[in-house]
Amino acid sequence: MHILGSRGIRAALALLPIFAQAIEIIQTPAGNDLSLGNNFTLHWQTNYFEVTQGNTSIWSTVPGRPFVGASAGNDSVTGSNGAFNITNVDENECKSQNVLSFQYVDWEGTLTGSAVQVRGQLLNCGGSSAPYSLTFWIPKELPDQVSFYLNIDSPPNLALKKLYFRWASHANEDFYGLGAQASFASLKNQSIPIFSREQGTGRGDQPLTDIENSAGGFAGGDEFTTYTAIASYVTTDGRMFYLSEKSTAYANFNLTQPDAVTLRYDSLSVDGGYAKGSNMFEAVEKLTAATGRMPHLPEWVDEGAILGIQGGQDKVNAIVEQGLNLNCPIAAVWLQDWVGTHSQAGPYVNISRLWWNWENDEQLYPTWTRFVQDLRTQHNVRTLSYINVFLANVSTKPDGYRRNLYDEATALQYFVWNTTTNSTSVISSGPGLSAGIIDLTNPDLVTWFREVMKTQVWNSNISGYMSDFGEYTPVTADTKLYDMVSDAFFAHDQYPLLWSQFQREVIEELGLQNEAVVFHRSAATGSNRYQNLFWVGDQDVDWGKNDGIKSAVTIMVHMGLSGYAHLHSDVGGYTVVLTYDDFNVTRSAELLGRWGELAAVSSSVFRSHEGNIPSVNAQFYSNTTTYTYYSYNARLFVSLAPYRRRIITTESATRGWPLLRAPVMYHPTDLVARRISYESFYLGPDLYVAPVLDALTFEVNVYLPGNGTFTHVWSGTRYIGGQNVTVATPYGKPAVFVVDDAETPELDSFLGFVKKENSTVLSVE
């Protein structure tokens, strides 16, 4: 198969079939109106139909153009180990459509007991025709929304594979959401694939992306690769749309046409819902009422930094004690190497991989349970660990093991299976480390692994962990799962939801809802109802737009508008790149400090990461200078805790509103605000922030939207909205403004911090 580079896949995605032939109306409903219930009505309007709520149009087809289509052909997927490259393949496209009837049908789960169904034929499908039905109803549990179900029957002589669903938009409607989008402000004029995979290293930032992709794989990704498969959006018109968590086939939202949205979906049936609010906040509230809201984020995360450390008990103790002496508030340590490490050769330096066997390593953490308890007792510092969807074969682990979970799961056939080899579908994480993916569709595996989690992970009084991966399930035709609804391609985007659900169920069984913090990077529609924290993935340790520090902000914007209110990134980024061509990306002390500022004024949690090659990165504990800067940022984060917690409790939990808010949410008609992706954002309603996201930058020019007031906290200067202003940003002082003279008491501790620390001078030398 031909492997497309980053430019090639973008072109392939943009060239979706446009089924632009005329629509033929055979019969219209008597009176042209059919009631859906609760003041919702389907109206036929000559050559299109619309759904209204009262006098407001909330959804419609495009006048004179087909709204349903289909095609044959199997999409081409290349790549492995999570780095998938997809080429759309469409054959025998159905060129036109007719409408035969509009009628009431009995339908379960509706407010009225019935639904309105549109029936017709897809025509000119390679010489064949295919019947379709499109059904609308008001769900009993969500009476202010409209649900839909589209189904196409493939003719006997033609194997149709995918459907197209088109509805109306307009040139001035901008789109946000669709999961962890990192490269765009508005998604209008883009064609967005919905598929969970490794986001890649570079994602369009050059020359890094081309270097990573040059080996013939897709390791660099492109502007559209993301860990999430979240098929929902909100718009500046206050509209929201989503596919249900049962509709997990590969999808693509084509937003390139000014007057239409076209959904391409790799199955012949799909369901979802839509609604219209009075603004974007109401749209998010309606969306999360359907797709879910994030569970409680425990209050202990407000108390300070979560220190990402590796290296064993003595090193951890020393770094914690040093931080406490430097007045660093520490809420927890995060120790991903609790299971031990495996060294692999790399350019210039060796790389450490983890032994995925979910028991403590006897060399690094010989008294693990007591060590965790001592940190809590002596310093009030909690411990987070690490878990993922793999079980590694630890038969070659030098210091031995107590259980080999890989062998046990293999004997019980608990892994995702390969029918060609008639064995476990093996994932390789470099030489000497092979693993299987647990099959979460197998109820026996779920029961078995639940006990592993309880007896080997949670048994040591930890307070949570990183819940990694979820995007690796193979998609080849010879992939088999225990309970596969359709095929591996369909099951792939279901897996992140199952992984999130599994973790939450274990937490609830243990009664740890008010203690456990589990942060995920993969997600699907509906995962947010099981995840109490999301982290935005593996950014490069640089200043890049598509995969560096800037992209962390853009992802938080779109994830927030996808229903994920509690978000954070790795302070300092993650991905180091060392090449034999001497193109290297390593973390500077300045990037670490500025990323800490960003986290303090943007995120629900303040957590650092050493990176994939810690030895070449500046670390917060590298020296007194870096630890002092980090401690300052942690105190800044803590000072905002009362304000953050108020928002999380009163707005995120009850309405699904994100903590970090794109300016467009408050100013949807402001064309400048619509184009802001990472440059500035609101933190709740009362603070406006412009972080420093470039090296050697000591002032920022920031656009202040609207016509209210913005008071710069560090200088006290008061500005009027609707203009660009330039403010000083020395180290430790990101541009933060109080909006409209807000006097909320929850800001007192933050303003006290500003007053106390305004003269503090930080360094990166």
From TrEMBL:
Q: Where is the signal peptide?
A: 1-22
Q: Which residues form the Glycoside hydrolase family 31 TIM barrel domain?
A: 313-643
Q: What is the superkingdom listed in this entry's lineage?
A: Eukaryota
Arranged from A to Z, the UniProt key words for this protein are: Glycosidase, Hydrolase, Signal
Short name of one Pfam family: Glyco_hydro_31_2nd
Q: Where is the Glycosyl hydrolase family 31 C-terminal domain?
A: 656-738
Q: Name one GO biological process term.
A: carbohydrate metabolic process
A molecular function annotated in GO for this UniProt entry is:
hydrolase activity, hydrolyzing O-glycosyl compounds
Enumerate the InterPro entries for this protein: GH, Glyco_hydro_31_C, Glyco_hydro_31_TIM, Glyco_hydro_b, Sulfoquinovosidase_GH31
Family assignment? Belongs to the glycosyl hydrolase 31 family.
Extract the PANTHER family matched here: SULFOQUINOVOSIDASE
Instruction: List the protein's name.
Output: Putative alpha-glucosidase
Taxonomic source organism = Teratosphaeria nubilosa
